[in-house]
Every structure is written in C-alpha cells, then in structure tokens.
Design a protein that fits this description.
Elements lengths: L1 E12 L2 E4 H4 L7 H8 L3 E4 L6 H16 L8 E5 L10 H9 L6 E4 L5 H14 L5 E8 L10 H4 L9 H8 L2 H4 L5 E11 L3 E9 L7 E2 L13 H6 L5 E2 L1 H22 L9 E4 L4 H11 L6 E2 L2 H4 L6 H11 L8 E8 L3 E8 L1
Parallel strand pairs: 4-5, 4-6, 11-12, 11-13
Antiparallel strand pairs: 1-7, 2-3, 6-7, 8-14, 9-10, 13-14
C-alpha cells in the first residue's frame, strides 16, 4: 500500500524577538496578564519588507534540505496562509518563482488556523491520486501587518519616540488579540512511499454560522470599496474576536474531532504517542488535553516561544518534535486545530 509520508520539515521566524515586557511599553498590559490568559511569553515579528512568501521560502529551503530533495523534484506546491503578500495573487506562485522551479501547479488555501491540516489532506489526495509524487506544503504568516501601532523602531529597541497617551489607549483597545500573534513560516515535504507508515486519515469540518466571532470586518468585497481610510481609522482592518465563544468552540470541537479521526482508523485515543495541536492559546490546549485524558508527555506545546502563527503553528511544532526525537519510527501522531471560518479538523499519522 502506498501512503503519503512527511520526509522533511523546517521553519523560520520573523527577525525580531519581542517579549511580553516590550509590548507593555506599547499598551496597557504586562507579562503576567499575557501569560495568564494565553501562555504566550514572546513572539517574533518580521523586519519591514519581509513578506509571507519570504518566510515561506526560507522554511521551504530548510524542509527541502532536511528531506534531501532538490527544488526541481517538487511536483506541486500547496501554500496555506491568511496573510498573503497581496490581496491577489496568492503566495503559491510567488514562492514557486522564488524557488526558481518550473511551471508546476501552486495552490493557495485559506483555512486560517487549520490551514496546515487541510493542506495535509490536499497533499495526500494529490499524491494518492497519482497527480503528484512530491508535494511542498507551506504554512506562513506575517501577522504584524494587523498590529495597530506604527512605532516599530521603539518596539524593537532601536530608538524613536514612545507612543503618546492617545496612541497607547488606541493600541490597548486591541490587546486581547494583538498580544497573541507572531510571524513565522513552516514547511513540510511529502512523498508517496510503499508501506504502512505515513498519513492514515483525516476528519475536517466547516461551519460558517458564526463566522463573525472571529473575522476582519473590512478589507473584503462585501463592501465597496473594499477598504477605506475610515476603516483604518476605526480599526476595522484588525481582526475582531469573541474570545469567550472561540474558546468554548475550540475546547468542544478539537477533542471531538480527535476522537472522530481515531475511531475512523480503529485506534484508541489513549494509543496516541503524540498530540500536536494548533497553538492558539495554551489554556485551550490544556483543556483539550484534560478532556482527552492524555498525559503531559503525549502533548506538545510551544506557543510560549512563538505565539499564534496560524498556518505555521503545526509545522513548527512538528519540526521541533522531529528534531527532538519525539516522533520516533512507528509513533502514532495526531494533528488537530480549529480556526476562523469556522474550520476544524484532525489528521492521523504513523511516523
């Protein structure tokens, strides 16, 4: 039997490490406030001019090197992001050009925090159908474009003026969201190989009933023009989030879909060797762990170091686990996530 295997991974972060105390210089918050609510201790932001496709390129090169695969061996690119370089085109074709490879297909997907899980399913389908042998899957984000401040030099400790009292009050309006996110890119190289190891199955779902619990009100074609100066003045280009409802949905749907994918493959949840969840909030993942009754050694979290990097969180976590020896041959690994849309899903893999 041919299965799709992940044969290489890699990731990169933005160039600037920003700890919670640095954000406290920009808004009314503190290291304690951020850690208590999210678990985040630090995140990385890109230098001005670094784009999502740049991060995708850097991560892709690391994954290709890890897999010992040349760029010319890639048959298909799948790029997951909610923060593309441009409204259109997507990042897939831009990445293909930056890699210097031929006119292979490049697919862009927009599943936000579940983008990498959906991308795994797409890559698996392409390989198992014979449409591709080697797929490059990338999840990358530059969330810093959402941030409601302009004094980046001051934040990065390069001089400049501190925010005024008025600016600080404006930035503080959005602190429940802005403290969560970081910039990063992760990538995986997938290839079809004979044997029982590889991706075993998926369960994915979508429900747009309450999409407004996590969305960007402006910058879309539900209005004309799709972005205005007033939108920016009022902060409608910044994500809005009903945090309480998102938390409740995540801690219900994520354990549910883990059980679903395990049942479909006739394995027990307790048979899992490793659960890699999307890194949106440490408190969510702790609740998911308790609900599934998994011991701490079977669950991996790294949101403390990177914040929420949306489509990049799972490939970053997978790469760290692989490099640390936590994904040993034959291990049963489950990926799970939930994101705006709402979309949620899980994937099961025999390493």
């Amino acid at each position: 039997m041919q299965r799709t295997r992940i044969i290489g991974t890699g990731f990169v972060t933005g160039e600037h490490l920003v700890k919670n105390d640095a954000l406290a210089k920009m808004m009314d918050t503190s290291d304690e406030w951020i850690r208590e609510r999210s678990g985040v201790e630090q995140r990385y932001y890109v230098e001005s001019g670094t784009s999502t496709s740049d991060l995708g390129l850097r991560a892709a090169r690391k994954a290709l090197e890890d897999a010992r695969v040349e760029p010319g061996e890639i048959d298909y690119i799948v790029f997951a992001t909610m923060t593309p370089d441009h409204y259109f085109p997507g990042c897939g074709g831009i990445l293909q050009n930056k890699l210097g490879i031929g006119t292979i297909p490049a697919l862009d997907i927009r599943q936000q925090c579940t983008g990498f899980i959906y991308g795994l399913q797409v890559a698996d389908a392409l390989i198992r159908s014979g449409e591709a042998r080697t797929v490059l899957l990338v999840g990358a984000e530059v969330h810093s474009g959402f941030m409601p401040w302009t004094k980046w030099d001051y934040l990065f400790g390069r001089g400049g003026e501190a925010p005024s009292a008025e600016e600080r009050a404006w930035i503080t309006r959005f602190r429940d969201r802005t403290v969560l996110f970081g910039d990063a890119g992760g990538a995986a190289v997938l290839r079809g190989e004979e044997g029982e190891r590889g991706l075993l199955g998926f369960k994915v779902h979508s429900d747009g009933t309450r999409f407004e619990d996590l969305y960007v009100p402006a910058c879309g074609f539900a209005q004309r023009p799709y972005v205005t100066a007033e939108d920016c003045r009022e902060g409608r280009h910044i994500p809005e989030m009903n945090g309480r409802e998102v938390f409740k949905l995540a801690v219900r749907r994520m354990p549910e879909v883990v059980r679903e994918v395990c049942a479909a493959q006739r394995v027990r949840v307790q048979d899992l060797d490793l659960l890699i969840a999307h890194q949106a909030n440490l408190r969510i993942n702790e609740m998911v762990q308790r609900t599934l009754e998994l011991p701490a050694e079977k669950v991996f979290n790294n949101i403390q170091k990177y914040g929420n990097t949306t489509a990049a969180t799972i490939p970053i976590a997978l790469d760290e686990c692989r490099k640390a020896g936590r994904v040993r041959e034959g291990a049963l690994v489950c990926f799970v996530g939930l994101g705006a849309g709402f979309h949620w899903g899980a994937a099961l893999m025999r390493a």
